């Protein structure tokens, strides 16, 4: 894309009143942005409002700065930084099938990742339980080893764990972010973002310089699900943004999967609600691979995730699957208080048990 063409696209999307829907209608009616901008106001008003038609006749005041910012960003790493528009042959075909495709996409990383034939979204709580965090990581590892590209949103919690799991086994992963690609949000994921760019891709529909604005994150969820053959929700409260992703995925005709959890955990209620609404309950990555008819490797990895396996440790087995209080655990084991506290501390230090809010205890995947 040359300077003139980029300027035309930026002018279109920066014009006040030209949202995604209006931009697509203008492009459908007149062709590329150059052609849109060359139309008389009367013709533009036939497709958009008279107010938008008048706005299109004026160059947005921020256009010059935006153009220079994007050109400079592209020039820093020409093979790794890209801008895709609805008019590009390299634009992801899956996004053209959704109701509200982005007009422009900024991409940092390998464009081939966007053409990966098998992709699955993994989303969930920003504040998962230790088991939820472990499930996201282990499912992503198993899916990555099966040749599936993991798509998520770079957020804290489940998103980050999913990206890490995919990267750990050398699998590709895509992060769909809610800011411009010249910033990383959350900041704690700066190193993770760099590794994703090196092994997959970060993408955003938001122009460079866009800060982390709350409305942008639910909006980007349609891209996460739209790029994927299915969406796995690991943990989610009833008001979680992950349920937005699941709802949009269903509307897009994609499969929705959910991992069940404790009936006592608020972070499981969203998944249970999805299952009641028809999402597919899964206990292992193999459940997803079989449902989507994706073949796993012949050799099953030792760490292929299941919710739990027998540990051989009577205390861990007594804890069961759900968060449990000290008193309940003591009643199950009959252990005296000092010995039980000492053993729990030992398991906690070994990463096999985590303490949850409210004084509850739960086994982690390490157990």
TrEMBL record:
Domain DprA winged helix: 304-359
Homology family: Belongs to the DprA/Smf family.
Listed Gene3D superfamilies: 3.40.50.450, Winged helix-like DNA-binding domain superfamily/Winged helix DNA-binding domain
Any Pfam family: WHD_DprA
Gene that this sequence comes from: dprA
Protein name: DNA-processing protein DprA
Residue ranges annotated for the Smf/DprA SLOG domain, each copy included: 83-292
């Amino acid at each position: 894309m040359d300077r003139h063409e980029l300027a035309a696209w930026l002018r279109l999307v920066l014009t006040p009143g030209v949202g995604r829907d209006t931009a697509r209608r203008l492009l459908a009616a007149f062709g590329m942005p150059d052609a849109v901008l060359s139309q008389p106001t009367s013709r533009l008003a036939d497709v958009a409002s008279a107010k938008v038609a008048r706005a299109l006749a004026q160059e947005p005041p921020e256009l010059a700065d935006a153009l220079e910012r994007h050109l400079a960003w592209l020039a820093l790493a020409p093979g790794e930084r890209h801008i895709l528009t609805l008019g590009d042959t390299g634009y992801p075909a899956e996004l053209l099938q959704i109701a509200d495709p982005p007009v422009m996409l900024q991409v940092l990383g390998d464009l081939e990742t966007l053409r990966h034939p098998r992709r699955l979204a993994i989303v969930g709580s920003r504040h998962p339980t230790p088991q939820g965090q472990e499930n996201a990581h282990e499912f992503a590892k198993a899916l990555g080893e099966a040749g599936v590209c993991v798509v998520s949103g770079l957020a804290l919690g489940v998103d980050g764990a999913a990206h890490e799991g995919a990267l750990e086994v050398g699998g590709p992963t895509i992060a769909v972010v809610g800011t411009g690609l010249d910033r990383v949000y959350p900041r704690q994921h700066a190193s993770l973002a760099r590794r994703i760019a090196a092994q997959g891709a970060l993408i955003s529909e938001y122009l460079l310089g866009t800060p982390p604005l709350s409305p942008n994150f639910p909006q980007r969820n349609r891209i996460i699900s739209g790029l994927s053959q299915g969406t796995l929700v690991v943990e989610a409260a009833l008001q979680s943004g992950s349920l937005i992703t699941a709802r949009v995925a269903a509307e897009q005709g994609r499969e929705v999967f959910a991992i069940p959890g404790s009936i006592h955990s608020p972070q499981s209620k969203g998944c249970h609600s999805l299952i009641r609404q028809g999402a597919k309950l899964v206990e292992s990555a193999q459940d997803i691979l079989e449902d989507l008819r994706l073949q796993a490797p012949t050799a099953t990895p030792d760490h292929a995730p299941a919710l739990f396996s027998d540990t051989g440790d009577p205390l861990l087995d007594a804890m069961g699957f759900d968060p449990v209080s000290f008193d309940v655990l003591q009643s199950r084991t009959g252990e005296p208080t000092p010995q039980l506290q000492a053993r729990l501390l030992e398991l906690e230090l070994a990463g096999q048990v985590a303490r949850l809010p409210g004084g509850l205890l739960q086994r982690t995947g390490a157990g």
